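User: Show me an example of a complex going from sequences to structure tokens.

Assistant: Sure. Here are the input components:
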Amino acid sequence: MIKLENVTKRYGDKLVVDGLSLEVAEGEVCVLIGPSGCGKTTTLRMINRLVEPTSGRITVGDRDVRSAAPEELRRGLGYAIQSVGLFPHLTVAANIMTVPRLLGWERSRMRARVDELLTLVGLAPDAYATKYPRHLSGGEAQRVGVARALAADPPVLLMDEPFGAVDPLNRERLQGEFARIQRDLRKTVVFVTHDVDEAIRLADRIAVMKDGRLRQYDTPERLLDHPADKFVHDFMGADRALKRLGRVRVDTVMNTAVPRIDRSGGGAALTSPASCAVERFAYVVDAAGVMEGWSDCREPESSESPGSGVTLIDWREATVRPDDSLKEALSHMLELGFRRIAVTDDSGHLLGDVSLAEVEAALTGGDSHVATSPAGGLDR
Amino acid sequence: MKRRWAGVAAVALGATAFGYLVSREDWWAVALHWLFPSLPVVLFSSATLAELVIQHLQIVLTSSAFTIALGIPLGIWVTRESGRDFRELVSATADLAQTFPPIAVLALVLPALGFGPAPAIVALSLYGLFPVVSGTVAGIDAVPRAVLEAARGMGMGPWEILRRVELPLAARVIMGGVRTSVIINIGTATVAAAAGAGGLGSPIISGINTQNGALLLEGAAAAAMLAVLADAALDRAEELLTPSSQ
Amino acid sequence: MVREPDNIDPGVSHLADRVGATGALIVLAGCALLPLYALRANRIVPGIAQPIAAGGPAAWVLVLLAMVALAAALRARGPSRARLELACAAGMIASLSWALAYAAANITPDPASPARVSIGAGAWLAIAGAAAVWFAATRSPMSRACRVGAAALVAVSWLAAGWWGGLARLSILREYSSQSDAFWNEVGTHLTLVGAALGLAIVIGVPLGILASRVLRVRRVTLSAVGLIQTIPSLALLGLLVLPLAALGLPGIGPLPAIIALTLYALLPIVRNTYLGLAQVDASAIDAGLGMGMSRSQVLTRVEAPLALPLVIEGVRAAAVMTIGIAAVVAFIGVGTLGVLIITGLGYQADDLILLGAVPMVLMAVVADALLRALGRFVTSPGIREEAR
């Protein structure tokens, strides 16, 4: 979809981008990453001609970017930047409608689109459409920026550290939302960041740059497993194994057949040894399937206080979601001191669990069967 | 540091040059004769140029002295506890008064006080008050709260805080107000010549009345030079009053 | 960083209203120490002070209301105090109009006689004091009906005093009536000149300001040049223009140098504010605009202009107020603005002629200021409005 052929940018005698060639396939997220001054932002800005290359050729969808007027090119590309650059004198809705208005859409179509986009980025249209940028928090402004970039439904999105100016918690959320939106929309995205974890989480392929040159352009897994040189190796970070885990979604490896006890079944069901089966514990759920805790069958039954073997928890604090990464699941496990952790949906319904066994399997390379060697295995 | 004092030196040099230039009426006579060969009279006869400049300066400096002596304390007072009640009124009055054309203020004072330099001084003092008050209030307001808290925490009394913290930090903005006031006054004093106040407006008005371009130019050139010089001098003063760290 | 006044609003009820009290005291001082009206044998002779009683019952009402206002300021509390003060303020200004009218009608009953009654210094002081009381009253929240009612009372009273009460006998108005055609001519010339100069200054100044925000060299040269012009006294500038204009074969006096001078003076606020307005536009908004596909001119009109406009209007406001003042000075070179009245008045030493020129000019400036401020507020998008103090 996007092709850069031997693109160079020189300012005076300073070579900012040096003979860069890469290709981004349609529907792919390409992340440009590298230390400050490596030329990643300049490269991005050459795609929409905010910067003109000194030499080389850039094509978007088989058309040379120079074949049309820059304005026309840019209206077909979504553009979101770190400082967002919302127009302070316009409402959120008017901001979003910027490119559609330039393209001459009709009112009703624009209005519908605004509602659609605000919902997509997780902001309630009724509340946010008429607000002014000054009343938005950092995270909200970023979302509006993304909505604005998507407004005219461009096939390509150019994003320059769009989540950079936001606090870590919000950044996490925004990354997750972006991943979700991308799954739905399948845009071709060129994304600049300096945050390796962000790159690994979001990219289909990562282009590692230094001093204007492309060092390696590969999937995150291959970058982590087979770095091309020492620079890439060091840049990806020492905790490569953990980063690998960041690429695996919980729902792809979780166990769904977990023992569960329906609490509404009454006291007798709680202590029934049959429910505990091999695992010697069972998750306790309510009638709707929302997780309430677990029952440890190894606790001797006490007739004075039936149900004393049950640990009740708040699912919001002690579970993970299906689209969280294994890295997060591991982190939670370590934090809570468990060897496994339950997976629930957004309303608390128990879906399954993941254990250290799944973590280890992912670390050793993709297959989901449990390792059997005593040294590598993690016993429960 | 050197740059600041270089600027001051330049102004001092300019002032000296101006002073000398003004005293050499013969030079003016030659130049004006050359420009206006057909006119018999090229210099203002009722007073020498130097005298006119001094008259002008007297009016401006006297009124500025009053303005500063009244305006700065007033501005300080309305930012103190005791004067807070009056702050809005004073600010609103100052804003309103600055929309009054200066000529109008001169014209309004005249019926009450008559003609001559003294009423002009009163009018100029009154009109010049408002930029200075506004500037003082703005300057003191702009002192960061954190700095005041720190000063209070260190045990400085209100008087000390004013003297050692607020005024030095506000000095530049206050000076800006004074500068505005003085420049306007120089201009208004020029017009005040029509009300018998003397000064550099006299040859200008006389020149207009007698259709004598040389007199016009004599007054206009000297007044323009004086104004530019004064503005430069006050600009230097503003700079000097800024602590080096700002 | 601005420091908030950390007192409570002076309109607060549990303390005495010192501002209102001061205003009331000023009114009383005006009445007691200075004459409210003065009698002049003719146009040019200074006036002889007249006793306050010459104003008839209205004058005593004025004094009474001042005392009530003082008592209210010191003693009353709560919203009723504000309403009372406002009523007194309106009443004072209203009764002043009747007192003046009464004095003018009774002291100089014969309209043909050259003797006339003029507004005394005390009356001006009374107006100032009453305005202060009004100001103090309106610091407290008050219904719109109250404010409008008070203003209406004053307006109606002055109009009525003018129509029936003999206010027209007041010296300044007699001056007006003897000059009315010329007066309106002068007002017209004044306004036309101001309008033309402002228009020219906007047409030249705004593009210059835009250029200055783009090109550094232009900025330095332009801002220095217009700044320099500003410091030169207006009369001096007019004088300096004579020579170059004469060299070009153009008249050195009259409307041409007047327009040139007025436009030059109006340039600074407009150029500088245009530049400042554009300079403070968020650079990332411009980048986003360009990146999304706006052309340079679209960015200018859709992003930069709306954001810079409030400051530009502020510059026009400052320019307007200043130009109204300088337009009086150009009367010296023979242009028939309100300055003519002032100059003539100075020549004859006729105070009321001077006032007839000065007062309308002040009103013009105040109204222009208020209108342009309102315009500024109007064009400021709610997204960029500064939070209220």
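The lines above are the inputs; the final block is the predicted structure for all three components together. The domain at 2-240 of chain B is CATH 1.10.3720.10 (MetI-like fold).
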